[in-house]
């Protein structure tokens, strides 16, 4: 059993790695890098300023991992350490010094179009980019994380205490986040800031923001409320005090000093609407539950009345659901829901604060998976009706309903468990269409939006998350199968 689990976990990790790496390679080799500026408003504004435009381009390429970039000031500061007479003037002497340094260190020397100031770039090979992506993916906070020369006496410690602001918490000093572990009334009630995923910086949409903050952060308007800050000052603010991060002493503003009694003065905002991943998670979980809530009773009814009217009617409906293209199916039910039941045909109509916004996309997402569930469970239950234990139950005098409910349905747990991973994967696939059609601000909509905007970091991050969820669901599905079916022995050779 342990050997099997170890093997499956390693295989799952390898699958996630391969899918993410292939996606990374395709995006960064086949998609022209110039396309990232196609929808960038700032890029168009700088076309009349060639020097600023060149700096803007190279800075963006550097943040996205295409190149390493040394601006004019950075280049002169670096090279002048070994050449005291070097200046930023575009003279032949300075160019010769900089060209020699660039050739020696593998950089390419350039000059700005107008000022002729020097700068250098270095293309980063794809294998190096991939290595850096995975090497920096897991960020672990610790008491020596912060390096602040302006605060040499910074205490470095971890202690579990009752904080005056947030209550009991594992409080850090010298860490990036103040509250390493904390508790509140929000699911899952226990939270941590020790380990974070670093999936890059978003560009050009959500420019400069951490990708994980874009995906996991709240949306919409900020949710301001009366807050009492650590210094005792009470003010109306949307600050999330649980997210306090270290701010260098020299960068502390007067307002931050007024509100906070230490350097942990950077906070995220609280928003009224759930995050992208939160919206997708809610709709996906409910859709899967809905699919099984509809599919199981229908499959049992069809199996019980095999060949009769309920079975024929069910087969007809399932056939229609399978044959109709997903997009046509979505638009049809959106029309029915909007015109017959008065439900919004677009998520932004009422927003995330109104449950009606979730009804149509969630129901449609669930219905997309119902047909496969019905077919699979119906087929299994019909096969079981001729099994020996069913014949024995009939001989004992049990009626058809009792046999179906007490005996056959118990064994139907096997196909139900087997179908769960496929339902989750189907929900992920369907979400990219339903969220786009209904303009729901979830990860499903974010994926095509990021592809259209050439936001490569977002695309890779969403693919990574979707792949992780899909692969994990398959692994858990196999383990669930072994739990519900004693005949499956994962410890056996070849299993």
Structure description:
- There is one protein chain.
- The chain has a four-stranded antiparallel sheet, with no helix packed on it. Strands 1-3-2 form a three-stranded antiparallel sheet, sandwiched between helices. A two-stranded antiparallel ribbon has the order 4-9.
- The chain is built from 17 helices and 15 strands.
- Helix 1 packs antiparallel against helix 17 (about 455-485) and helix 10 packs across helix 12 (about 355-385).
- The protein has three domains: about 35-125, no CATH class; about 140-195 and about 225-270, no CATH class; about 275-485, MetI-like fold (Orthogonal Bundle).
- The chain is α+β, with helices and mostly antiparallel strands.
- The mean pLDDT is about 85.
- The relative contact order is 0.10.
Features:
495 residues; alpha+beta; MetI-like fold; 17 helices; 15 strands; elongated
Structural topology:
Layout: H1 2-30, H2 41-45, H3 50-63, E1 67-70, H4 72-79, H5 92-105, E2 108-111, E3 118-123, H6 126-135, E4 138-140, E5 157-163, E6 167-173, E7 179-183, E8 190-192, E9 195-197, H7 211-216, E10 219-222, E11 225-228, E12 234-237, E13 239-246, H8 254-259, E14 264-269, E15 271-273, H9 276-304, H10 309-323, H11 326-340, H12 356-384, H13 388-395, H14 400-411, H15 413-437, H16 443-452, H17 456-484
Antiparallel strand pairs: 1-3, 2-3, 4-9, 5-6, 6-7, 7-8, 10-15, 11-12, 13-14
- What percent of residues adopt helix (DSSP H or I)? 40-55%
Q: Largest beta sheet, briefly?
A: 4 strands, antiparallel
CATH architecture of the largest domain: Orthogonal Bundle
Mean pLDDT: 87
Number of strands: 15
Structural class: alpha+beta
Strand content: 5-15%
Low-confidence stretches: none
- CATH class type of the largest domain: Mainly Alpha
> The CATH topology of the largest domain, please?
MetI-like fold
In the CATH hierarchy, what is the superfamily of the largest domain? MetI-like
